Amino acid sequence: MSRRFANRSTALALAAVSSISALPAWACPSCNQGLEGDPAGLAFYWSTLFMIAMPYLLVLTVGGVLGLLYWNAARNAAATFDQTETMTWPAEGPEKEGGR
Asked: What is the pLDDT along the chain (100 residues), one digit of tens a residue?
């Protein structure tokens, strides 16, 4: 049991040391330059944001267009719906299925 505890404490100590030593490091040099005002760094920053946002914009655009088309079709169908024609039977009676 003490060996298992020693392995866990060693792993915990290594994780703590690695997280503490990584604090002063920057994640990305381009992001660092973009935050400082470098034009090339800002260009990389904005192009990265654009590439991240593009799939969401495409899905929202296509979904919005399809939703708008569906909504317009449902509204037009409701406007042209005549309830008296669908509620009355012909004089001969209802059609029989399968020729019975």
From this structure: 566 666 788 888 887 777 776 555 555 666 666 667 778 777 887 888 899 999 999 999 999 999 999 999 988 888 887 655 555 555 665 565 555 5
Count Cα atoms within 13 angstroms, Cβ side, for 89: 6
3-state SS assignment for residue 48: helix
Return all residues near 45 (Cβ < 8 A) that are at least 6 apart: 30, 31, 34, 35
Sign of CA dihedral 24, 30, 35, 38: positive
Backbone angles phi, psi at 22, to 5 degrees: -85, -5
pTM of the model: 0.44
Cβ neighbour number for residue 45 with a 10 Å cutoff:
18
